Prior knowledge:
Blueprint: H1 3-27, H2 30-37, E1 40-42, H3 46-57, H4 65-70, H5 81-89, E2 97-101, E3 109-113, H6 114-119, H7 121-127, E4 133-137, E5 143-146
Antiparallel strand pairs: 1-3, 2-3, 2-4, 4-5
Helix pairs in contact: 1-2
Amino acid sequence: xDNRKILLQQKIKINKQRSRRKLLMKMLxxxxxxxxxxTDLITSPKLEKILEIVxxxxxxxxxxxxxxxxxxxxxxxxxxxxxxxQYVQEIEMEEKEVYLFLGILxxxxxxxxxxxxxxxxxxxxxxxxxxxxxxxxxxxxxGMMIKILFY
Length: 151
């Protein structure tokens, strides 16, 4: 593929990611929408680099069955949505910015206050109709990913 075509595809992807921000803002209550509107937005290609760092941290096994076997101490299972919400809301962390990656198609990464995410987790969760929500801490040393599996 020639460079112009690659650049054009990248610009299209970035525009889709930016439009996801507007869609998310429509789904959230006004006060939360204002926060998302005023956050820094990370789009392609930096977005892919961040996700690659996270995947490398877990030996590219993050979304595989091997993760369950090799990293069982880093995993917690819940039976009900309310248990997930309660668990997240009980997390205490220092004031710092985190990457908020919603994991939905063409979603950008939002750079937001981690305590804001914890405080508003239930509304974010419900606004996304329980879509997979993924949150990675800025340092990428510790973090949380919430993945919903329906059986």
